[in-house]
Amino acid sequence: MINIAIKLATSITYTADGSQTNFSVPFDYLRPAFVHVSVNDAEVSEGFTISNRMVMFDSAPSKDAVVRIYRSTPTTRLVSWADASILKAIDMTIASVQQLHILEEGQDWSKTNSIIFDKEMGAWQGRKCRVSNVADPTEAQDVVTKKYLESTQGNFVKEATKQANLAKTYAEEAKKDSDKAERAMTVATTAATNANVSADNAADSAELAQNSVTDAARMADKAAGYVSNVTIWDSTTEYKPPDVVMTSDGSTYRCIKANTNTPPQSSADCWAITTSVAAETFEYDEKGDLMPLILPRTSNVWEAINGEIIPIAL
User: Fold this and answer.
1) How confident is the model over 186-230, as pLDDT tens digits?
2) Which H or E run contains 8?
3) For residues 308 and 286, what is the distance between their CA atoms, to the nearest angstrom?
4) For 61, which DSSP code?
């Protein structure tokens, strides 16, 4: 049996399980014909029998079907009286029971078809039905009608709609601002990333520059050492590997075979040229030292500073 909010005296409702065929009738009835059955709110007039306060279906109602068994006693008299007739107890009982049943059924109808007071909740139950033909409220606790709500006190509905539209507009503006902020954040993040990359590149460039400076200094040291070991070729001097000499044209040679009075320009067996300059670039001064000619005053490889011949710095 399903639970219902109101206890009825002349009706009972079951939820079928798909196999049950017999359903008990918990209320009295004068005749089986006064007992009615509905399945899922549809009146059933056949396919069952009523006996000994039991409704017996020929086949079980489907699972979860709502089976309602109720009594409907006719208002026409079941017992008629006439003057000088004999009053039998059974007839008087039938007449009184019929009246009692009609009253009970009327009460059940009122409970299921009208607004009732729910004692547990302390509130009137409208059974999810509309209430029509209601006057406009006059007191503080009166019920407000739809017309009154829409047309009185500055139109509550319009005002509420206006406020809802404003809230929607503000929400859209906030969304736009949020999108702008997100785009700005993306741009800032990209800029920061690019700045980090630039910083890394600058650091790499600085490191490369430092390496270049170090290499240049190393090369300058080597060149200085190389120049300090270079002497003017002399025909009376005995040369051995790896002596380095400079000829009158400014070219330098490295000794690869011991020799004396063997001009570097004429002997590839004894000398290996290391640098070469254009002819008539250098000359001997009055002290016998090699110096650049007045014309030209420059060389692609060598230069004279403070009377000393050194490599041109690149």
Assistant:
1) 998 998 899 888 888 888 888 888 887 787 777 666 655 555 578
2) none
3) 15
4) P
Burial of 2 from C-beta contacts in 10 A (0-12 / 13-18 / 19+): exposed
Apex 9 CA angle, 8 and 13, nearest 5 = 55
Helix (H, G, I), strand (E, B) or coil at 269: coil
CA distance 314 to 102: 127
Q: Which two tokens stand for residue 269?
A: 């067996």
* Per-residue model confidence as pLDDT tens digits over 280-294: 556 666 676 666 655
Low-confidence ranges of the chain (pLDDT < 50): 1-4, 295-297
Kindly give, in sequence order, each residue whose CB lies less than 8 Å from that of residue 54, ignoring residues fewer than 6 positions away.
Answer: 22, 23, 24, 25
Distances in whole angstroms, Cα of residue 284 to Cα of each of 33, 273, 289, 291? 153, 21, 5, 6
